[in-house]
Design brief:
Blueprint (H helix, E strand, L loop, with lengths): L1 H24 L6 H4 L6 H11 L2 H5 L13 H13 L15 H20 L1
Amino acid sequence: MMRSTSTRVLAVAGLLGCVWLAQGCRTPERTEESRQPAALAPAERVELVAAAVDAAALELRAGDEVSRTPLTAGERAELLRAAADATELEALRAGDLKLEDRELKIIGITAAVVLLIVIIA
């Protein structure tokens, strides 16, 4: 008896949550005038055409190859020296996963709650 009651409560709560979320995502009613796109002013049309053929904008196009000059031996040596001097940057390197006790506790509690919900449902 207790299990079916809790299942019903969870089902009703889930449905109410879905309805509440759906109401928040609903778009407001639109009038016929708001459905039609606004016409561009002549000045806006001229600006759009000018922007479409702008050479500076073409350089920013995705996928364009940009030629870069390779690093010289002096620049490489300077970079290696800077990397050796800044030892604290090693701790900021991505990919090192060092979880503290607090973070492990949060992960464990979250996993236990999810497992409990799966068992109850």
